[in-house]
Design brief:
The protein is mainly alpha-helical and about 100 residues long. It contains three helices and three strands. α2 runs antiparallel to α3.
């Protein structure tokens, strides 16, 4: 599988650009974007940082869960760990 363009990404009008100026995504003409479309563009531009943070949170949640007897913290973290794993898999193309 091809790797995504490394971050950080930045929104430049209606373009989402990688650090080398490569266009990562194009959204509708910036002047005609609705507030929702502008919010979506902001979310897209944060994708690399969000993925990195989610991977870190999944690693942390696994560290308090794996190899230890169940505890309040590990039980509480379990559903978030699974949700993080599912989102990471979707973001990396492992599942669609």
């Amino acid at each position: 599988m091809t790797q995504h363009t490394p971050g950080p990404w930045a929104q430049n009008g209606n373009l989402i650009e990688g650090p080398d100026g490569e266009t990562v995504a194009y959204v509708t003409a910036y002047n005609t974007m609705t507030p929702r479309q502008k919010a979506n563009a902001s979310l897209i531009s944060a994708a690399p940082e969000l993925l990195a943070a989610l991977k870190g949170m999944e690693k942390w949640a696994s560290s308090i869960h794996d190899g230890y007897p169940p505890s309040t913290a590990s039980i509480a973290a379990a559903p978030y760990r699974e949700a993080a794993r599912a989102a990471i898999a979707k973001a990396t193309g492992e599942v669609t």
